[in-house]
Amino acid sequence: MSISRRKFLKNVALATSALAGASGLGACGIFEAGTPTSEESDGEEVVRPVTQDKGTLYIYGWATYVDNSEVLEGFTKETGIKVVGDAYDSNEVMLAKLTASGGRSGYSIIYPSDYMVTQMRDLKLLQPLNKKLLPNLKNISSEFLNLPHDPNAVFSVPVSLGTTGIVYNVKAIASIIGEEPTDWSYLWEHKDKLRITLVNDPREVMGMALHISGGSYNSTEPEKIEQAFMKLRELMPAIANFTTDAWRDPLASGDLMMCMAFSGDAISLARQDPNIKYFLPNSGTSIWTDTVAIPRGASNIEGAHAWINYVMQPEIAAKISDANSFGTTNKLAKSMIPDDLKAIAALEPSEAIVSKSGRISKLEPEVLQIYDGYWTRLITGLG
Asked: Are both 81 and 138 inside the same structural domain?
């Protein structure tokens, strides 16, 4: 099962209000020790028992974190705790489910992305971590333990490092344009020859346009947001679609030439096809992390801490990085990831790229409405 890592990014207000009128949101997949069970949801909500024995740990996360049989079975072998994992396809689905449960979701481990940690912290949906139960926290590089979304890693531990960049078909670019791309500006310079896609993500796309115009990914100034919209509108002749994950086959075949993409998706394809390359623009880009956390109301607190400590083992962190093609925050795991993955320069941003990049953070609802208004005009071609 392939599930895009940040599919259908929406703001939390929309996600929560949508939940209020819905009977339930189903999980995308159910796994025990990484193996699909007969407990398929068929669109119906999966309900986990709120009161659980300590011999079972229920996890809610992105597919690559919950369907890795080697990692899950290794935890069971090491601790005796059985793992049951459900997958979601967006942070907002996870947030809505946990909000509706009032702290009684049945899950003891979740995998929120960095911006979602801020929202969940503010909503008091996260359990503070007991650092005494996490001796392997020392394996996480220090620069990831005091990020703006969760200062001092009180509620979460960043485990995977991701970026937003450009993936392209080498032969298609060589035959039609010649020079290979190095920056976002390439899209505008060759817009009359390119056929591209941008991710279906207003904060990423609008943020990119803000960034290359000298602004912030998190700008709150209406005039600058409008300028970003106007700049993106210049690209419309080259844009085939706004899609987060439906670009893979068209790019591989040459029907598309370049795509804005998230690193895990792009690097996974580049590892399979030498004609596909992923790079980070020289002017900087969006950098983000996936974290592991314990939701408020978790019934297996001890097992949850055991899981977090387990995935911070260097060899386990390396296996997870291999599975999802993300960079790792684990300083000891970097030397253990497969050679083909290490060989991809864009796996982790250089210090130079980091210094010129940004992180998407929480914005107030009234500002998000401005972004959404321009986004709707952009994707519908209303000008």
From this structure: yes
